[in-house]
């Protein structure tokens, strides 16, 4: 990697902290009486949940505590849900999401899903290859987990914990909703972001692996096809459109440039000449007075002229596109 293209390898740290607004339709403000109930009765259950979550916030939460938390969650949502007014409905949604998050962790659903996705990418067994569990849209994914329910549950039975199985047996429909229903504006909830991250880990790992390989490699024939890998990550994360999709697209653009081996090879060559034999570059009129490589990368016409002089014509075939990407990366 030369100093010219190195800035393109910014690391991916997408994910993802947008918190969706609760979807509240036309509820009235709460009356004083409703406020009293929700501050009294409902907060008793909330306190119990808070107490339990603080007491058991590590791995290996005993099943008895998990069940108590589930019970508290149920009481909270039905208590707030029973009051037909705005504040209370907001609270219901808020706690529903907190509870989803706590339960997916405590019932070891997250680690189970991680295993399932890994198995699909590594083995793609006869049953899981029949359904499109890694589909790109919520709708298709919902179809896969609906028609492929018994395939998925078989996997859970054989490869996940007792408690993950018990959650799936009793709450499969709810799990499906969390997994595949976007909230109103297509914004993902935090728990959906977590699940999306789990489902995209395999493709992200693949891409990071390729990036590392590329940045360590001196061999320009190594063909990682980073832009294809990046596109897979973009497709995988797209259902949560709240994610930084502009950032992903820009990143994928960078990889298109890195995949243009002739261009990269040429910038590498110019970088080397600049380091070892600076005078040679002063033969270019436009280079007079430009003594750092950074100045060269700020002058499009000059860059083009030097590349024309030093490299094969093939290095210039995507010059305008590449320049745009490069300029963009270097100016940040
Ligand atoms: C979602 O849409 C509602 C109105 O439909 C809006 O008030 C809210 O701010 C939006 N949330 C986000 C995160 O864009
Ligand atoms: C669970 O709840 C029961 C009944 O309220 C209580 O007796 C028990 O101590 C609780 N267990 C835990 C681990 O919180
Ligand atoms: C699994 O196999 C099916 C068909 O054999 C294929 O369509 C699908 O893309 C594969 N899935 C993954 C994640 O490799
Ligand atoms: C999951 O269970 C199946 C049997 O249904 C087994 O063939 C497979 O190897 C297991 N996968 C993992 C990752 O343990
Ligand atoms: C990289 O992947 C893209 C998209 O799959 C494909 O069009 C392109 O031909 C691949 N390039 C190389 C060099 O393999
Ligand atoms: C890269 O440049 C070297 C000479 O500097 C050349 O031998 C090699 O074939 C080039 N590789 C590509 C992919 O253009």
From TrEMBL:
<keyword id="KW-0732">Signal</keyword>
<feature type="domain" description="T20D4.11-like">
    <location>
        <begin position="30"/>
        <end position="187"/>
    </location>
</feature>
<feature type="domain" description="T20D4.11-like">
    <location>
        <begin position="188"/>
        <end position="328"/>
    </location>
</feature>
<feature type="signal peptide">
    <location>
        <begin position="1"/>
        <end position="20"/>
    </location>
</feature>
<dbReference type="InterPro" id="IPR002542">
    <property type="entry name" value="T20D4.11-like_dom"/>
</dbReference>
<protein>
    <recommendedName>
        <fullName>T20D4.11-like domain-containing protein</fullName>
    </recommendedName>
</protein>
<dbReference type="Pfam" id="PF01579">
    <property type="entry name" value="DUF19"/>
</dbReference>
């Amino acid at each position: 990697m030369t100093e010219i293209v190195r800035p393109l390898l910014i690391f991916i740290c997408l994910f993802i902290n947008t918190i969706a607004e609760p979807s509240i339709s036309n509820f009235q403000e709460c009356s004083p009486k409703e406020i009293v109930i929700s501050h009294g009765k409902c907060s008793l259950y909330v306190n119990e949940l808070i107490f339990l979550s603080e007491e058991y916030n590590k791995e290996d939460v005993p099943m008895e505590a998990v069940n108590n938390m589930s019970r508290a969650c149920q009481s909270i949502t039905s208590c707030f849900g029973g009051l037909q007014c705005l504040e209370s409905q907001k609270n219901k949604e808020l706690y529903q999401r907190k509870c989803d998050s706590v339960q997916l962790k405590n019932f070891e659903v997250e680690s189970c899903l991680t295993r399932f996705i890994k198995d699909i990418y590594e083995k793609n067994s006869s049953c899981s290859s029949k359904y499109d569990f890694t589909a790109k849209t919520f709708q298709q994914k919902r179809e896969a987990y609906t028609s492929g329910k018994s395939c998925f549950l078989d996997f859970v039975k054989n490869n996940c914990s007792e408690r993950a199985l018990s959650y799936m047996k009793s709450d499969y429909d709810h799990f499906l909703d969390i997994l595949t229903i976007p909230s109103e504006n297509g914004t993902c909830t935090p728990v959906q972001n977590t699940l999306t991250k789990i489902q995209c880990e395999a493709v992200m790992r693949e891409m990071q692996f390729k990036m590392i390989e590329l940045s360590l490699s001196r061999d320009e024939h190594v063909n990682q096809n980073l832009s294809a890998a990046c596109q897979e990550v973009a497709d995988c994360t797209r259902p949560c459109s709240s994610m930084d999709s502009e950032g992903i697209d820009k990143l994928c653009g960078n990889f298109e440039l890195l995949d243009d081996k002739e261009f990269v090879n040429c910038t590498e060559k110019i970088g080397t000449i600049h380091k070892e034999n600076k005078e040679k570059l002063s033969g270019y009129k436009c280079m007079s007075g430009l003594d750092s490589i950074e100045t060269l990368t700020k002058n499009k016409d000059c860059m083009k002229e030097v590349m024309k002089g030093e490299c094969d014509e093939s290095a210039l075939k995507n010059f305008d596109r590449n320049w745009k990407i490069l300029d963009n990366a270097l100016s940040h």
